[in-house]
Design brief:
Layout: E1 3-5, E2 12-15, E3 27-36, E4 39-48, E5 54-60, E6 65-72, H1 86-93, E7 97-98, E8 101-102, H2 103-111, E9 116-121, E10 126-133, H3 137-150, H4 155-173, H5 176-189, H6 203-208, H7 211-221, E11 227-233, H8 237-249, E12 274-279, E13 285-292, H9 301-312, H10 318-326, E14 332-339, E15 344-352, H11 357-374, H12 378-394, H13 399-412, H14 419-427, H15 431-441, E16 447-452
Parallel strand pairs: 2-3, 5-11, 12-16
Antiparallel strand pairs: 1-2, 3-4, 4-5, 6-10, 6-11, 7-8, 9-10, 13-15, 13-16, 14-15
Organism: Nocardioides albertanoniae
Family: Belongs to the peptidase M16 family.
InterPro entries: Metalloenz_LuxS/M16, MPP/UQCRC_Complex, Pept_M16_N, Pept_M16_Zn_BS, Peptidase_M16_C
Length: about 450
Amino acid sequence: MASRNTQGTGRQEIAGRSSGYDQEAGTTVTLEQTEVNGAVTSLVRRTVHPSGLRIVTEQMAGVRSAAIGVFIGVGSRDETEPQHGCSHFLEHLLFKGTPSRTALEISNSMDRVGGEFNAYTAKEYTCFHARVLDADLPLAVDVVGDMVTSSLLTADDVEAERDVILDEIAMHDDDPDDVIHNLVAEQAWGATTPLGRGIAGTEASISALDRESIHGFYREHYVAPRMVVSVAGNLDHDTVVTMVEKAFGGSGFLDARAAPRPPRDGEPLGVAPGEVSTQRPLEQVNLIVAREGLRRGDERRFAFEVVNTAVGGSTSSRLFQEIREHRGLAYSVFSYAYSHAETGLFGVQVGALPSKVEEVLEVVRSELAAVARDGITADEIELAKGQLRGGLVLGLEDSAARMSRIGRAELVHRELYSIDEVLERIDAVTAEECREIAAEILTRPEILAVVGPA
């Protein structure tokens, strides 16, 4: 593979596109370059620091913003049972202050430049992200780097934030959408398993967590080999690398030498079928009909995305047309699919009046059985492909979306597909591929979850 030295940096640049866990430390690779009429409109590059930290950027033409995300490869599924909710608790605490900034100074620094600043915790990773004007990117990198590497996590902050998180848990318990998805996960993988447990924790687990256990979790998991710094917008890659080295290296965070941690993997994990329900004083019944889906990285995912879109992913889909438009049984009806390293779920979610639940279930099951038996039509395939193409491209029009795409791809996948490659994979899906994957997934045993009035 040809290589050259990156001028003025001392970092070697080579062509490549696989995940950076097997990239030589101290090198920079070009992952993707897009040209229009001979002009470069997008350039994606990655540097692997000797500490194991990965820095991936996308230089975008014609924008005046920049977005940064720090993706840490730890989420709720990495917690032991006594640590349940620790990842999410820690996400809150990192906004509370560092040796060089108070919580108010962290907030003021981003508000002063009109920046957007937030974080979220998922089951497999945590992300801290900001979006600013391009001129303010050095500030955003410095603030986020300081928070992630040097948070104080004082005992007083732990106690103050504990009450905030307990309020958040209560809020989620009042939201039927959150409740029903937690029920599905508990049924699928077990209420006491890492994937089956809710992300935020429970009142009991959050009340039991102390400063020592949270700090230990922080020091164990917030390490350079588990992190990806993703930046997109009007930027220069080498300049961003220098910013990151300064912001993350001040506390000795980058001193150790290590290889990046590989993407998460594991043996296939099944899904337990069954029925689960809980009562809430609601006007509507919320229900999900789910079954085991595809593991992350399954090559058939493009065909299944087409099937999912045709079944319930748009207003022209079978379920939306039959349940809402033709029969008027429900206002909200859609299908979804998501994947983890070793398992996945496909589901149909509907909100309906109690008197219409039985008919809704009959229609959902009948339509899924028909698709499993006969596949989807050529017209449905073309409609679904168009929906997927448009959703992909339009959803990547801003720097924050581009940052998230390359950051998540680097952390959880083994290869970054260009936008054009994804479009080509969608276009290449055949009717036979749709029929085969529908017949496999839609005949798997069912989970039925119901949340509603007694």
